Amino acid sequence: MNILTKDAILAADDLPREIVPVPEWGGDVYVRTMSGTDRDAFEASLIGKEGRLENVRARLVSLTLCDEAGSRLFTDSDITALGGKSARALDRVFAVAQRLNGIGADQADVAKNA
Question: Which of 32, 42, 80, 86 could form a disulfide with 66 if both were Cys (CB 3.0 to 4.6 A apart)?
Fold first, then answer.
């Protein structure tokens, strides 16, 4: 049995990333698994406010696009600008972000039942 220490847990690279080709943007991007904090913020943005599905693709993409080291490329203040990009490109990245983060019908149910 391998019992982990606090240091081992905090040092673990547990946010896998995947390269996704986005021809609409002329290249490839890294999409990563969200941190627990980012996931909570994303879920909270779907609950309790009418119309919060607005820019949902851009919100998830902003939380998951990263550089080679896994650091976010976009901040929350970039969401509106990112939402103005190609829907096809956003859909392409959004689909990978959903898969990597286990987001699907359950998230739609969260928003619907709020």
Answer: 32
pLDDT at residue 106 in the model? 54
* H or E, element range at 20: strand 17-22
User: In this predicted model, what pLDDT tens digit does every residue of 5-50 receive, in sequence order?
Assistant: 999 999 999 999 999 999 999 999 999 999 999 999 899 888 866 6
| Average pLDDT rounded to a whole number, residues 86-95 | 97
Burial 35-57 (b: 16+ CB within 10 A, else e): eeebeeebeebbeeeeeeeebbb
Q: Which domains can be identified in the chain, with CATH numbers?
A: 16-112 (3.30.2220.20)
Secondary structure class of 87 (helix, strand, coil):
helix
Report the C-alpha gap between 97 and 38 in whole angstroms. 12
Query: Rounded distance, CA 39 to CA 14, Å?
Result: 14
